[in-house]
Amino acid sequence: MKTLKKLLISLALLLLVPFTVMAKDKINVYIFKGATCGYCAAAISYMNNLDSEYKDYFNLVEYEVWNDATNKKNMQKVASYFGDTVKGVPYIVIGDVRINEFAEETTGPKIKEAIKSAYYNEQYEDIVAKVIGDGKNNSDSVFIIVLGVVVVGGIVFVLIMSRDVTDDEEEKVAEKVTTKTVKAKTEPKKTATKKITTTKATTKKTTAKKSSTKKATTTKNKTKK
């Protein structure tokens, strides 16, 4: 059982490591766009086609603002928070970096630098999610954390159950030891009883022999007379 416990604890630690990493794995890159905006489409295509290194850094979150009044209002909230005057779309937000245009030759490197900087920044904050309060910044994290809690909870349950089993086994072992101890204590008494009985039987036989001898002697004496 001790080996099982060690294995379960090791498994729990191994499972917690990826959960800890994944909970802060990717940052969110926001783009406020227009439905038929060519520059917006080019920016989205550019970010979606970044090499695998950058794809592991971020999630792209899109808000269409020309036909959606709520998204337009949220874009204005974000711009107001930063003190920006939005000239149009695309309006790209990466951490605290804002880019209000797109041209691959000039804007592309800025986007890549902002993504990498935000990803490696320990103080990174998803300001857009904070301002508009949609919770997009932590949906993945919440799911992963919940999953981690479920897995760890299951392991803890197994440990508790194994502990109960161990306690039962210990009780059984204790009962066996107690039983053996009781037997060990009672067996000498039985032996002593047998010895006493044997002694009594021997005494009786000796007494009987002495009586027989006396009788025989008495008979001889009478015969001599």
Overview of this protein structure:
This protein is α+β, with helices and mostly antiparallel strands. It has a domain at 24-137: 3-Layer(aba) Sandwich (Glutaredoxin), CATH 3.40.30.10. It has 7 helices and 4 strands. The protein has helices at 2-22, 38-48, 52-55, 69-82, 104-120, 127-132, 139-224; strands at 27-33, 58-64, 91-94, 97-99. A 4-stranded mixed β-sheet has the order 2-1-3-4, sandwiched between helices.
Strand content: 5-15%
Question: Total helix count?
Answer: 7
Shape: elongated
Find the count of extended strands (DSSP E, 2+ residues).
4
Strand arrangement in the largest pleated sheet? 2-1-3-4
Please state the average pLDDT score. 75
Query: Distance N terminus to C terminus?
Result: 92 Å
Radius of gyration: 45 Å
Largest beta sheet, briefly?
4 strands, mixed
CATH topology of the domain at 24-137: Glutaredoxin
Question: In short, what is this structure?
Answer:
The chain has 225 residues and is of the alpha+beta class. Helices cover 71% and strands 9% of the residues. The protein has a domain at 24-137: Glutaredoxin, CATH 3.40.30.10.
Q: Characteristics of this structure?
A:
225 residues; alpha+beta; Glutaredoxin; 4-stranded mixed beta sheet; 7 helices; 71% helix; 9% strand
In terms of topology, how is this protein built?
Layout: H1 2-22, E1 27-33, H2 38-48, H3 52-55, E2 58-64, H4 69-82, E3 91-94, E4 97-99, H5 104-120, H6 127-132, H7 139-224
Parallel strand pairs: 1-2
Antiparallel strand pairs: 1-3, 3-4
Helix pairs in contact: 1-7
